[in-house]
Amino acid sequence: MGDHIGMVATVLNALVLRSALEVKGVSAHAMSAFAVGCFIELFERERALDYLRNGHVVIFAGGTGNPCFTTDSAAALRAVELDMQLLIKATQVRGVFDKDPRKHPDAVFFEAISPGEVLRRGLQVMDAASIEILGRKKIPTIVLDLHVPGNIVRALAGERVGTVIA
């Protein structure tokens, strides 16, 4: 039941994000992995690609639509499916560390790290399946702090923000 509640929560978050983008004048679409109702579209690969080709923002919700898969796994799968050039993971800390910096003040920050090194060290930045999928498909991932205003925009503009996993 918890997985299902989590998937529905991502739909709510997607609707809030879509609304915030639209208020800023950005054309945005929210798509869910499962049918929810008339206020969010069901994910269809071709429609998502069409939106992206036309400069729209597409927000993916509902994970994979299946229990036991993380939202990281869903993001990695969508990135591969849509031939994305970059995945951004916005999180609670500024990037990837050798251990949880909230618990360990001596945690070492990585500006860049390879997917193989993330897996070898057992770093808990994303689930191992996601890291492996993105690494195999050579899709770089930027891990950054969600709570720093402008971080996502700066990362998209090519500025050095957070950690690059590539």
Quick structural summary:
With 166 residues, the protein is an alpha/beta fold.
Question: Which properties best describe this structure?
Answer:
alpha/beta, 9 strands, 6 helices, three-stranded parallel beta sheet, 2 domains, four-stranded mixed beta sheet, 166 residues, Carbamate kinase
Question: What would you note in describing this structure?
Answer:
With 166 residues, the protein is of the alpha/beta class. The protein folds into two domains: 1-69, no CATH class; 85-166, Acetylglutamate kinase-like (Carbamate kinase, 3-Layer(aba) Sandwich), CATH 3.40.1160. The protein has six helices and nine strands. The strands form three sheets. The chain has a four-stranded mixed β-sheet with strand order 4-8-9-7. It has a three-stranded parallel β-sheet with strand order 2-1-3, with helices on both faces. Helix 3 (71-81) runs parallel beside helix 5 (128-136) and helix 4 (115-121) runs antiparallel to helix 5 (128-136). The termini are far apart. The model has no long low-confidence stretch (mean pLDDT 95).
